Amino acid sequence: MKKYFLLLGACIVLGSCLTDEDAAAAVLMLGRSSQAPVFRKCKAVSENEIEFEFSQPVKITSISFDPVLAIASIEDGSTVRVTLEENTAPGILLTADLLAEDGNRNTINVLVPLRARNNRMPSLLINEVRTEYSKPRVEFIEFIIKRPGNLGAMRVFMAGGSQKPTVYEFPPIEVRVGEYVVLHLRKIEDKCKDEYSDNLSESGGTDSSPTARDLWVQGTAKLINKTGVIYLLDQDDRVLDAVMFSEKPDLRWPKDYLAEAAEFLYSQEAWKTTDGQIYDMAGAVDSSGIKTAATRSISRNEKTEDTNTAADWYITATSSATPGKPNSEKRN
What percent of the chain has pLDDT over 90? Predict the structure, then answer.
């Protein structure tokens, strides 16, 4: 099973104003040979170093960044390492424009967005999830901050039903211990605003909180269901937290993204099951009690330690979803 399965098939929702065209690398290849170099990926490996991977050794003939970054040195090869003169701010969005040439004078032009390295990611937990929608109340994922830091470049993976997974990437945001961050999964009101600064009362949409940080996914499509998986990844693809839930816990995970997600999370010990049967939904939170109530939620017991199991979670009673606030202790 490939570790990066969700990166390959996911719909990516960047926490910024990128267009669909910007979200994928634009590549133009010119030259003499059919064996022209292929651009594979790029990654910020440190606060002042960025690597670009190609299928064969290349030499960089020109490179620039937006916003402008001063370049200290370039190491050519199959993996091109660009060293910057100064450290970048954590998790900021960059666009790299580079022209490379191989030994046969084939050239390749790459235009690709990426996030700067963020070595200050906070410690946080997924704290509450609403899977149901009743206009204007939209689905949400709530997080609670356990250690301060910057959210930039952290990714939220959501998979549910037969839908392809969705990835939301956080923009750079400084967060404090005890702060609640609510990621609302649709944007259907004009008053819904992303709160990037210290002003937590900017957003006026339904279920916005004046004391919590509200962020909104663009669009109106449904992104999660009562059977699904949510987890957080850092820039090195380490799982920071996860939750798995199913409205039919007596069944097995469908042989699609959900089964792959279950295998991935169990292999990382980000989610645990008592019977060792990783493909059985019995190890997930039983979400059947939600039914169609948009005022119920899957809530973490905030008074106990995180065990990465279904025992950490419960379904709240009707009218007990609490986006941006401590979880209600009223259970279904």
Answer: 83
